[in-house]
Write a structure and sequence with these properties.
With 219 residues, the chain is an all-alpha fold. Helices cover 86% and strands 0% of the residues. The protein is built from nine helices and no strands. Helix 5 packs antiparallel against helix 6 (105-129), helix 6 packs antiparallel against helix 8 and helix 7 crosses helix 8. The longest helix is centred in the last third of the chain and has 39 residues, at 180-218.
Length: 219
């Protein structure tokens, strides 16, 4: 029985010594973090390479490695993809394949815009079907969200959709009119700085304002 065996291993392990399951968990977390950082790092460095198809190959690999690392085995990972997930993954896969086949710098430059389009589709679909994307994330840390917080997460999801539209449009503009270095800097660094700023601001606002206000209203 795996569960009993794992508890026995944890019981006999010396204090401070990681069990195999813990080690695998840490390894998986590290891989996920590295893969999440790999995409902006690749875009940030892409302007230095004169062969876009190499970057296209790496984009394709990062895309599917991220999905594999999210749930372990490849078959398990693929079974967990929803219809929307498949649509976004296939969109970006086709874009990567087109870059590889054509060696087109323009297609490579437009790839970040397609990433924004994919995120817009993923977030927007949750507004139609529910729960909203931000509500899903919020429930990871606070499963019992009050109704006011649920309404807040829906508004934040709408805000993210607007952000993806604007960022995608600006990304397309940089692809068409900016130099390689400036395109790379915006799409590999500045855009992700904006994403991080929005994420932190929303979490701080939710925990410092939205949740306390909801708790007071229900008291």
């Amino acid at each position: 029985m795996p569960s009993v065996r794992s508890r026995m291993q944890a019981a006999v392990s010396p204090p401070g010594e990681a069990t195999p399951g813990t080690e695998r968990s840490w390894t998986k977390t590290v891989v996920q973090v590295v893969l999440k950082l790999a995409y902006p790092a690749l875009i940030l460095c892409a302007w230095r390479w004169d062969t876009p198809r190499y970057v296209g190959c790496m984009l394709f690999a990062i895309l599917w490695l991220q999905r594999w690392a999210g749930s372990g085995a490849v078959a398990t990972s693929l079974r967990r993809l929803s219809a929307i997930d498949w649509a976004v993954a296939l969109l970006l896969s086709c874009a990567s394949a087109a870059i590889v086949l054509t060696n087109s710098e323009l297609l490579l430059r437009l790839y970040p815009s397609l990433v924004n389009l994919g995120l817009l589709i993923a977030f927007g679909a949750t507004l139609v079907r529910g729960p909203s994307m931000i509500e899903k994330f919020a429930r990871l840390g606070n499963p019992d969200l009050p109704p006011a917080a649920v309404r807040h997460t829906r508004r934040v999801t709408q805000m993210w959709c607007v952000f993806f539209v604007l960022n995608g449009a600006l990304s397309a503009y940089t692809a068409l009119y900016w130099s390689r270095a400036n395109w790379s800097l915006y799409n590999g660094a500045i855009a992700y700085g904006l994403v991080g700023l929005l994420l932190v601001a929303e979490v701080v606002w939710r925990y410092l304002v939205v949740l306390p206000r909801a708790a007071r209203s229900e008291a």
